[in-house]
Specification:
527 residues, Maltose phosphorylase, domain 3, Is able to hydrolyze alpha-1, 6-hairpin_glycosidase_sf, single chain, 4-stranded antiparallel β-sheet, Bac_rhamnosid6H, catalytic activity, 4-stranded mixed β-sheet, alpha+beta
């Protein structure tokens, strides 16, 4: 429900804590709003004087109660009347347990993951991209992953879209007093939400869950594929958070990644639509490289309408999706110098370095890490990890033990910029450290689902100058996969523990070893 700071007024009398007051709010059809406390008028404003987001504040819709941020208040005995004829239209003592469900303040019905738990009562679909991968590389609490997807899927509407930020505490299948229409507005979050699901399936090989929910994901994918413009061959969305909506590199390349991931899952569960997704991804990739590659910049343009601007998110997904060839990937990574600012990279090249609103986003820089690794720029990747995520750890006064929402160019948490010091969207380093520094990750394609086939490739860790690294992957539904390596006198000692039914490949530089048929491996490699 929208909330606005309309006005403030100094009360003509004192108010005490732990005391009940009768508060009356009157709103007429002309937009005049008045507030009284115990019968004494304290505030009168006209909604016509306010237009947040360029739109007038509506006099029609739901109502709710709440104290200001970090404050608490109790409410009881609410009555709503028709302003015109004074007839009673709603009454609730607010003392029944049913009230908690009606007002969206009940306890969780299942496990869900928030993004910014102090501030939000929203479950963000796009931000769950990082959280899903973090869980798979750390705690292995996959019940939180599936619980969050179950919650999201309850919000799917006829178009196939899933709510991008459903409200914690509401059951969207039962609650009729709250409209969710406003929470379908970030189209790129549909892509990120599906990719979060795809990463869960890659981590776990939970094909039972994939089959159980596939009809809904396929419906969402139908909406996504409908956004590919038949004239330009690129993706055209209505509104996106991370990049240009119309003919943008972010939207188009993230769609390629989504379609290829969908094809893998569809193939794994025996759905013939897999070939359709692969063809759409191939055709879209061709259009991206023909129309969005800026040879002069040596990277992808922001959009068809703004080819002279480059972006972190566009670069990230054009590389991580495989849309870029190895040659283009190397060029695009080198072109990131244009975006470098402070410890990381600003979101777009046309942002003013000195503007106080220009921040470093660990969210988009997290996407970028994967892209830099695709371009095999080990030095750049290592510096980004140390600088952005190192900044979150080095100062005891600002280190929270969790990842931050934003950084300033000076490497501070940017507290004046509406930021959070406990934000999973900033936690990409958690899975990158496992997958690329220690080097333990899935093999490509459906062969890598559930780590049936795995890779140990510690190239980044060696380039970062580490002498020792270890990582452990929790497997679904049980078990684990572990790697540990040491370097001494230009010799690497590697130890790997894996379920005996799995297969792996170790490689670094020109050295490559195939590993299978055992549960423990130990060997030395010259560097």
């Amino acid at each position: 429900m929208p909330s606005y700071i309309l006005a403030s007024a100094k009360l003509p009398f004192s108010m005490k804590e732990k005391t009940w007051y009768r508060i009356q709010t009157v709103l007429d059809r002309k937009g005049n709003l008045g507030v009284s406390v115990n019968g004494r008028a304290v505030l009168e404003v006209s909604l016509n004087d306010y237009a947040p987001g360029g739109k007038p504040v509506s006099t029609i819709g739901p109502f709710g109660f709440g104290a200001w941020q970090d404050q608490a208040a109790y409410f009881r005995n609410t009555v709503a009347y028709d302003t015109a004829n004074k007839s009673e239209i709603y009454r609730n003592p607010l003392t029944s347990p049913d009230t908690l469900a009606e007002y969206g303040t009940r306890e969780n019905q299942g496990t869900v993951c928030l993004d910014g738990p102090k501030r939000d009562r929203l479950v963000w679909l796009g931000d769950f991209y990082h959280t899903s991968r973090i869980i798979g590389a750390s705690t292995g609490e996959f019940n939180y992953t599936k619980g969050t997807f179950d919650f999201f899927l309850k919000t799917q509407i006829q178009t196939g879209q899933i709510a991008i930020a459903p409200y914690l505490g509401y059951d969207p299948t039962k609650t009729k007093t709250l409209s969710l229409e406003r929470v379908y507005g970030l189209d790129d979050y549909q892509l990120l939400g599906f990719l979060a699901f795809a990463h869960y399936i890659r981590q776990t090989d939970d094909l039972e869950y994939a089959r159980k929910t596939w009809a809904q994901w396929e419906k969402q994918l139908s909406w996504i594929t409908g956004k590919i413009n038949s004239t330009s061959g690129l993706a055209d969305f209505s509104f996106t958070f991370l990049g240009a909506a119309q003919g943008g590199s972010l939207g188009s390349c993230a769609t390629v990644e989504t379609l290829n991931a969908a094809a893998d899952i569809a193939e794994a569960i025996g759905k013939k639509i897999s070939s359709k997704y692969r063809k759409l991804a191939t055709d879209l990739t061709r259009s991206i490289n023909q129309k969005l590659w800026n040879k002069g910049l040596g990277t992808y343009g922001f959009s068809l309408g703004d080819m002279n601007t480059s972006s972190v998110a566009g670069t990230a997904f054009c590389l991580s999706s495989g849309a870029a060839s190895k040659k283009l990937a190397v060029s695009a990574v080198a072109a990131l110098d244009e975006l470098q600012l402070g410890p990381g990279y600003k979101d777009r090249s046309n942002l003013d370095d000195h503007d106080s609103e220009t921040k470093i986003s660990p969210n988009t820089n997290g996407f970028l890490l994967q892209a830099i690794l695709a371009g095999e720029d080990w030095d750049r990747a290592g510096k980004l990890i140390r600088n952005v995520w190192g900044a979150m750890l080095k100062d005891p006064e600002t280190s929270s033990g969790a990842s931050w929402e934003y950084l300033t160019p000076a490497g501070q948490p940017g507290l004046s910029g509406f930021t959070s010091l406990g934000h999973p969207w900033g936690g990409a380093a958690t899975y990158i450290l496992t997958e690329w520094v220690a080097g333990l990750r899935n093999a490509d394609g459906i062969q890598g689902f559930g780590y049936k086939n795995w890779i140990v490739n510690p190239e980044l860790g060696v380039h970062m100058g580490l002498s020792h690294a270890s990582a452990k992957i929790p497997l679904y539904p049980s078990g684990e996969l572990k790697v540990e390596w040491f370097i001494k006198s230009k010799k690497m000692t590697v130890q790997i523990s894996a379920p005996i039914e799995t297969k792996g490949v170790f490689w670094i530089g020109k050295t490559k070893k195939t590993l299978e048929g055992e549960s423990k491996y130990r060997f030395n490699v010259g560097l």
